[in-house]
Design goal:
The chain is mainly α. Helix 5 crosses helix 6, helix 13 runs parallel beside helix 18 and helix 15 runs antiparallel to helix 16.
Length: 451
């Protein structure tokens, strides 16, 4: 019977390898590549907003907000579009708390499929929106909400590489920024197809990826840290190998884990860095325009360069994760702050050409923010409560990110982004105390027997 056949096929497609051992050897690498590819195509698509923005302007999205007989873009239209991005960026971070809990309780497969279904719905809703069916924002929000679910569903692959979690997480987070290429492809195809066709095509791609996730993703994440700690009876002593000592916090309750200095640092540090990153992504075109309003062609070119840099530099920056693996998370955080502060300082210079250096440094530290966030939780606390610990920080990120719109309005009021950029630079620089203090406290003490 066709219905019986459909049920059997569905049951087979949703089969899990979670009850068996995790993949090893070539299968493990192929599985990791599949996770990275799906994340690349879906998770960080809204990062490419700066490339979608001019297409929406040209397509007349929210142009009805402008006064009659307005030919070009108006302030009300840009505010509406920027508010759409701010809401999407904020919710995409905030929803990671929900996606993290979903990962813990429903597993990677269900988490990934939930995200992909939301993104398919968002793409279709955006494609069929018009002045009479104005649901662009809802479609964009669904794209924003679905991405974190897909991204979170892949975080557990760090379990398969316990000695190189920093490297794996950097590659994974690099692909998150690589999602910007989706709208960059839209940008170049727009001369042949309108937004409706482009978003329908993307929905088809998402549907194909949903089949891939159904076939390959496990039902339950594999917690290598918990397994290893159990093998040593949760006793962290001198006989245990070094990697087991680094997982000593996995033996604590989730409440105790949240009260550690390492976690409290992340709770305050990561939201500030996410706000700082999303503010630049959402206002890059306006910031460049404010530096040279008479040279719009050059401004558009540099904004397109940023669209290229974020995904490409993010992908090749994966080896930066070796800093965390080799020298520890403290050095990784310090390196992140150096890149971020230098990039922000360049942003204060009122010269257009030098902003290319700023964009390059931003493209390096943007995935590193998420890499430090995800890798540090796995290294310090294991994966038993990973989703909740990761998601709790996401709540702070989402809440703080709603400041992006008033900060943008404040910049428009003063006619410059200098003061907002300066404030974000000072605020983020305060956190340098953590890596420096940690390095000094963990510095090996010399004894009388040392040479």
């Amino acid at each position: 019977h066709p219905y019986t056949t459909f049920l059997l096929c569905s049951q087979h497609m949703y089969s899990c390898w979670s009850a068996s051992k995790p993949p090893t050897g070539l299968k493990k690498h192929l599985f990791a590549f599949a996770n990275i590819f799906v994340t690349f195509m879906t998770a960080g698509v809204i990062v490419g907003y700066s490339q979608l923005y001019p297409l929406m302007i040209d397509s007349g999205v929210y142009h009805d907000r402008c006064p009659k007989f307005t030919v070009k873009v108006c302030t009300n239209q840009t505010i509406e579009l920027n508010s759409m991005f701010t809401a999407g960026a904020s919710l995409s971070v905030f929803i990671q708390s929900v996606s993290g809990i979903t990962l813990d309780f429903l597993g990677p497969k269900a988490t990934g499929l939930i995200g992909l279904l939301m993104e398919i719905a968002g793409s279709l809703l955006f494609s069929f929106s018009s002045r009479t069916f104005e649901h662009y924002t809802l479609g964009f929000l669904l794209l924003s909400l679905g991405g974190p679910f897909v991204f979170t569903s892949s975080l557990h692959i760090g379990n398969l590489y316990p000695d190189n979690q920093g490297l794996i997480m950097m590659f994974l987070n690099g692909t998150y920024g690589g999602g910007a290429l989706v709208f960059l492809v839209f940008y170049f195809l727009y001369r042949y197809f309108n937004l409706k066709i482009l978003f329908i095509g993307y929905a088809v791609v998402l549907a194909a990826l949903a089949v891939l996730v159904t076939l390959l993703w496990p039902c339950k994440k594999y917690d290598v840290s918990q397994k290893t700690v159990t093998e040593y009876t949760v006793v962290i002593n001198e006989e245990a190998p070094p990697e087991i000592k680094s997982w000593k916090n996995t033996a604590r309750t989730i409440k105790d884990q949240m009260l550690t200095l390492d976690y409290l640092f992340l709770v305050f540090f990561i939201p500030v860095m996410v706000l700082k990153s999303n503010f630049l992504l959402g206002t890059s075109l306006e910031q460049l325009t404010s530096l040279d309003p008479t040279n719009q062609n050059k401004v558009n070119l540099y904004n397109t360069v940023l669209g290229f840099m974020v995904p490409i530099v993010g992908l090749i920056a994966g080896p930066v994760g070796l800093i965390i693996d080799k020298w520890g998370h403290e050095v990784g955080v310090l390196f992140l702050l150096c890149l971020s502060s230098t990039s922000s300082f360049i942003g204060l210079v009122p010269q257009l050409d030098i902003q290319l250096i700023r964009f390059f440094l931003f493209s390096l530290y943007f995935p590193l923010v998420y890499g430090v966030w995800s890798a540090l939780i796995g290294i310090k606390f294991g994966y038993s409560n990973y989703g909740v610990l990761f998601g709790t920080i996401a709540i702070g990120c989402g809440a703080l990110n709603f400041l992006a719109t008033p900060l943008d309005s404040l910049s428009a009021y003063y006619g410059t982004y200098f003061w907002v950029n300066l404030g974000l630079l000072v605020l983020s620089s305060v956190f340098v105390f953590y890596p420096i203090t940690s390095i000094l406290l963990n510095k090996p003490k010399r004894t009388s027997e040392d040479p």
